[in-house]
Write a structure and sequence with these properties.
By secondary structure, this protein is of the alpha/beta class. The chain is built from 13 helices and ten strands. α4 (100-114) packs parallel to α5 (133-145) and α5 (133-145) packs across α6 (159-172). It binds NADP nicotinamide-adenine-dinucleotide phosphate.
Length: 329
């Protein structure tokens, strides 16, 4: 396993980590969740990602039970939670958002569900335009001072909002966010490769990137026929179209990437994951898996890194036609 520093902190995170969105407490049984975590931990994964909203809190309960059962040394793994959306489907006032009340109560509830004394990283799952930035930054800072969380981060915040958080932190000598958790994959590049660049250089922000395979779109199964047992061909195209955000052009591009991966003798998932890892601003790629075999395959993605030569990276850009233009002033 390769380890990377999480932003400017000395904290080391495994280059691939494991997330639980849609799977734990929902799509998969608790036995599969346990097998996934054990497989990941044994391969050197040291970061498990979670959130209050995942399966309405059940995802954290499942993960907490596994962490307790495995009894791995606490200093060998990290667990996160995320606050914003709330735990219930229809949150009442203050059950959702980044006001101090919900940040603090959300933290207490996550600690209880995960059965841990502290969260390693606590993310603000989205920005909250209704709460002043001072209140947000002070709330996370105070949780750190109280020992309930070790670090805090943002998720899907704009570069402007993250900058504001750092300016507030600097002004009051508070601890600012260590990492952003953003979507990054071959189909979604702008934030990571353009908008966040000043955050990496000015504030040393790390990134824990999500949906590296565009929720499974960047895998062989939709093109090699192996998924047709699960869905009819028609369903498949509709589903693919939805995952590609209604853009059939994207599906065509992914087909070309599949052919390119085949030519390199690697699964498309390896191409997609290794491509994310090639970006030096990627601290960790959060994997999702509904089957143990998927995780087993994805943990081997490092094998594809040497195949991503400059020439292959150019070929990928030519297929994607979405390389962000970085303004130079
Ligand atoms: N902060 C945020 O707002 C946010 C948002 C989303 C996710 N996240 C985090 O990021 C994690 C990863 O996101 P993600 O689950 O969307 O990641 P992803 O890697 O893009 O998609 C994972 C899904 O793709 C399919 N898959 C994975 N490997 C495969 C393989 N080798 N072959 C075939 N299918 C494969 C599986 O779904 P199927 O088997 O069902 O097709 C799997 O659940 C989440 O668990 C969560 O912790 C954060």
């Amino acid at each position: 396993m390769e380890y990377r520093r999480l932003g400017k902190s000395g904290l080391q995170v495994s280059a691939v980590s494991l997330g639980s969105w849609v799977t734990f407490g929902n799509q998969i049984g608790d036995d599969v969740a346990e097998e996934l975590m054990v497989k990941a931990y044994d391969a050197g994964v040291n970061f498990f990602d979670n959130a209050e909203v995942y399966a309405h809190g059940k995802s954290e309960i499942v993960m907490g039970n596994i962490l307790k059962k495995m009894n791995w040394d606490r200093d060998t793994w990290m667990v996160s939670s995320k606050v914003y959306w709330g735990r219930v489907a229809e949150p009442k006032p203050n059950q959702k958002g980044l006001m101090r009340k919900h940040i603090v109560e959300g933290c207490h509830a996550a600690l209880k569900r995960l059965q841990v004394e502290y969260l390693d990283i606590y993310f603000a799952h989205r920005p909250d335009v209704n709460t002043p930035m001072e209140e947000v930054v002070w709330s996370f800072h105070n949780l750190i001072v109280q020992g309930k969380i070790l670090y805090w981060g943002t998720s899907e915040w704009t570069a402007q909002q993250i900058t504001e958080a750092h300016l507030v932190a600097e002004k009051h000598h508070l601890i600012g966010p260590i990492a952003e958790q953003n979507q990054y994959n071959m189909l979604n590049r702008n934030m990571m490769e353009r908008d966040y660049l000043p955050l990496f250089s000015n504030y040393g922000m790390g990134t824990t990137i999500w949906s590296p395979l565009a929720s499974g779109l960047l895998t062989d199964k939709y093109f090699d026929g192996s998924a047709t047992n699960e869905k009819t061909r028609m369903d498949l195209m509709v589903w693919l179209k939805e995952r590609a955000l209604g853009d059939m052009d994207k599906v065509e591009k992914v087909k070309k990437l599949y052919e390119l991966a085949k030519g390199l003798d690697v699964p498309l998932a390896h191409l997609g994951l290794a491509w994310c890892l090639k970006n030096k601003n990627t601290s960790t790629v959060i994997l999702g898996a509904s089957k143990v075999s998927q995780l087993e395959q994805n943990l081997k993605c490092f094998d594809a890194l040497p195949k991503l030569t400059d020439e292959v990276m150019t070929q990928i850009d030519e297929i994607l036609q979405n390389k962000p233009v970085v303004p130079v002033y």
